[in-house]
Amino acid sequence: MPDVLPLTPLTSPLDATVRPPGSKSITNRALICAALAPGTSTLTGALFADDTQAMMGAVTALGARIDQDPDNRTLTVAGIDPSTATTAGLIDARQSGTTSRFILPAAALLNTRTVVDGTPQLRARPFGPILDALREVGAQVEELGEPGYLPAAVRGPLHGGKVEVSGHISSQFLSGLLMAAPLMRDGLSVSLTSPLVSVPYVEMTRAVMIAFGAQVTDLDVTAGAYTPTAYAIEPDASAASYFLGAAAVAGGRVTVSGLGTNSLQGDVAFADVLAQMGATVTRTPNSMTVTSSGRLHGVDVDMADISDTAQTLAAVAVYADSPTRVRGIGFIRGKETNRVAAVVTELRRAGIDATEDEDGFTIIPGLPRPTRFATYEDHRMAMSLSLLGLRSPGIEIEDPTCVAKTYPNYFTDLAALT
Ligand SMILES: O=C(O)C1=C[C@@H](OP(=O)(O)O)[C@@H](O)[C@H](O)C1
Ligand SMILES: C=C(OP(=O)(O)O)C(=O)O
């Protein structure tokens, strides 16, 4: 992959079927549950990318053993008994929010000290709420850098019981606590101290936990154990947004296979936003299709539940016939980069009238000029802005390999669409 990737606009409408790689969020949840289930679990359809390699390294550090079979997208996991396991002592969560926020409570189940750290990008993201909650449930927590940030050390065991956690910064704190909770002495009952963002991810957490034999109702988890399980992981719905967005931008039809009406992922609702913009969306139990003439209307939409697709929408909105306002996503300023500022800055450099709002952004459609887009070490900046290259000449993507965080073959799969 070159340092800068030039893109060539399509000359005819799309007519393609694509199956994105496995869901990052489901893979990393299944890895946690499998690692905490004494015995052998098999995960099929798994994602092989930087974020899931980070999680594999993390659970391995806690004593789980993983056999990777990338050709068959399968992981075989031999889980641990946290009451007797010992840790390798240091976990590098790399750039991965899910790995870091999910492994902290899991590591804190063990009666030995684990340090969790990550890249400078991850060190800049918030951890205060989960570190405070872990103290409340019995962990010894050391904040080794800035208070409320990585690196941090944790040591258990955890008595569990009642705990409060905020919901407005990230749902990952809650998901991480819930997944460790069956192994806490008293189980766990969580109260939220602020409104929850990314709600569908918590529903996903419960679904994966239940598949591995946990007892969880709403935010209450009963003490018990995980059961080793054979678990099938569906394709990544956030990744699918780029291909569905491609159909909207370039016109034509794109079908995403493996993501149907019963998906665990909230991000499948991105297709409904495209429908509001004028595209046609059809779903079957095992696929979704977007068909578009390329003529789109702007929308006013709250994306607090599906914020990983907000940048995708920003790219699509450039080609609508009226402005698009995205609300409810102020918290994405704390993701891989400040995503509100980054997307607005890059679209403005392309001559598009985009503005930052307190809780999101507004995009006034226009004709993008040839632009070399910066990507801020954010896979979603690269994948979203690539959609402009399908319709407008002279679009280039800097540092295209940053997509390796969740989708190493993205640009190959994008090229294969045509
Ligand atoms: O739980 C998860 O798997 C995720 C939750 C979301 O994060 P927040 O809860 O921080 O919004 C999402 O952006 C992230 O990509 C994956
Ligand atoms: C926010 C993201 O990832 P994470 O929080 O898991 O690092 C993402 O994949 O867009």
From TrEMBL:
Residues the record lists as binding phosphoenolpyruvate: K24, G97, R125, Q172, R339, R380, K405
Subcellular location, record wording: Cytoplasm
Enzyme class: transferase
Entry-linked InterPro entries: Enolpyruvate_Tfrase_dom (IPR001986), Enolpyruvate_Tfrase_sf (IPR036968), EPSP_synthase (IPR006264), EPSP_synthase_CS (IPR023193), RNA3'P_cycl/enolpyr_Trfase_a/b (IPR013792)
Catalyzed reaction equations: 3-phosphoshikimate + phosphoenolpyruvate = 5-O-(1-carboxyvinyl)-3-phosphoshikimate + phosphate
Domain Enolpyruvate transferase: 12-414
Residues annotated as catalytic: D308
EC number per UniProt: 2.5.1.19
UniProt KW keywords: Amino-acid biosynthesis, Aromatic amino acid biosynthesis, Cytoplasm, Transferase
Keyword Endoplasmic reticulum: no
Protein name stated in the entry: 3-phosphoshikimate 1-carboxyvinyltransferase
Family listed: Belongs to the EPSP synthase family.
Quaternary structure and partners: Monomer.
CDD domains, A to Z: EPSP_synthase
Species in which this protein is naturally found: Winogradskya consettensis
Single GO biological process annotation from the record: chorismate biosynthetic process
Positions with a binding annotation for 3-phosphoshikimate: K24, S25, R29, S170, S171, Q172, S198, D308, K335
GO cellular component assignments: cytoplasm
Highest taxon listed in the record's lineage: Bacteria
Main localization (coarse): cytoplasm
